[in-house]
Amino acid sequence: MRRRDRDPDLFTASADAHAAEDADDARMRGNAPLADRMRPRTIAEFVGQEHLLDPGRILRDAIERHHPPSLILWGPPGSGKTTLAHLVARAASAHFVPFSAVLGGIAELRRIVEEARDELRRHRRATILFVDEIHRFNKAQQDAFLPHVEDGTITLIAATTENPSFEIIPPLLSRTRVLVLEPLSPEAIRTILTRACSDAEHGLGTRQLTLAAAASDFLVEHSQGDARIALNALEVAADLAAGAGRSEIDLAAVEEAAQHRALRYDRAGEEHYNLVSALIKSLRGSDPDAAVYWLVRMLEGGEDPLFIARRMVIFAAEDIGNADPGALQVAVAAKDAVHFVGLPEGRIPLAQAATYLATAPKSNAAYRALLAATADVKQHGHLPVPLELRNAPTPMMKAMGYGSGYLYPHAHEGTIVAQQYLPDALASRRYYEPGTVGHEAEIKARLDDWAKRRAAAAGAPPRTTRERKG
Question: Are 255 and 219 within 8 A, CB to CB?
């Protein structure tokens, strides 16, 4: 954070108006966790999110005008969403009302709206309604905010860890500004840890403990940009060090405090789509190392292994196809193996399949053929089957010409005949254009040879696969 670019006086001008709130906060924070006690009290104390808070940036500008718009703060856990909402309200001298998407309901919202109207009427004071985890509200509940945001009764600041375009109704999105918070940088986490160790009023300063460099590095890496994780682990490590009579928080203490880190992953949210997209693109890009990494990320996050296996089956047909026909067999076998043995052993066939698919030759020719044929079916509708291709099980159908002129390939040399198999309107169309890698190179050579033989049989110049697009 470039602290020299921030003016503390600008953001502490309303401190007197909140003196009583600060006193209450101090009393409440006495037994609160370290992460809560170290929550910044002014924008000048906030570490990180410079893209929103540096001079000239959108949130800084809204704060300077003391009249913030309705906002949706979208970011990972521990990135400062709740803290920023408090600080924005404080800078605007607004009445701050927290509202939980888990605990609150429509009746509670009506009461808050009436109080907000009273604040405006009697005290000319705006109300900022802070809705945490707004993605947990259903669409009907989100609709309840709209009229009160539109008429200015409340300014809505909502926090979410999920992509708003997936979780927030469009009318509410159009009436708010979405601000994206990033995971805190390693430098920001390190600053927060140093401050927590030295702050005697709110942090661990009175314990006179030092944080070893290796321990600090571990906490920075362990937190993955989440200040809450870093501070929670630091607090436990400090208790361990003090209990052992040590004056230094060393690497062993923070490793013991951290234990196993749960990976952030939501099987129904944006991270689900991000990780499966990364897996598929790594397979398509022929990078087995990246493919295995994203596979493990999904499994460690709790993804259903059969979902991953199904995606691999689709990938084998769509992106490898006939360049390596065995790829589909490997993918289906991996799916069956995972279903048969379950986890954790099922990870092994998944890894085998991922590395096989990533290193196989690639072709989407079969998939492109499907798309092209689908487009023609939709455009041309139900074209009649050529008479020579129709079955003739009855005398009447034979009399109508069904099957007349059909050339039985096995009765001809090389089993290749000059026969039209597509409807007349699509006679020149070629949907499948094999590539030049893997098994498809053989298929391409075979099709080109057949094209020459058919052309010779029909008395027309032959066309290669590249020339056969209609």
Answer: no
